[in-house]
Amino acid sequence: MLLVPSKQDEAWPSYNMANEVMKYLEEQEYEYAYEHIALEGSHYDLDRQTLNQVRAFLKQHLVASCGL
């Protein structure tokens, strides 16, 4: 599970909710991969560094598990 919320979300508290989701997953000892990559500003602040983090997560956990 990959969460990419914005710390300055104007629509809803996505950053706070992502923190709660991460806490819940940790408490439940969730067996699958999960990561929280927070954008510093709004959703329009998605940058190359964040995209590289998303790509690395997907490559490590999705592509590898599909045998691609």
Defining traits:
about 70 residues; 2 helices; mainly alpha; 2 strands
Strand order of the largest sheet: 1-2
Q: Helix/strand/pairing class, anyone?
A: mainly alpha
Strand tally is 2
Give the mean pLDDT.
92
Q: Number of helix segments?
A: 2
Question: What's the SSE blueprint?
Answer:
Blueprint (H helix, E strand, L loop, with lengths): L1 E2 L10 H14 L7 E2 L11 H19 L2
Parallel strand pairs: 1-2
Describe the protein's architecture and organization:
The chain has one domain (2-66). 49% of the residues lie in helices and 6% in strands. It has helices at residues 14-27, 48-66; strands at residues 2-3, 35-36. The chain is flat.
In a few lines, what is going on in this structure?
With 68 residues, the chain is mainly alpha-helical. 49% of the residues lie in helices and 6% in strands.
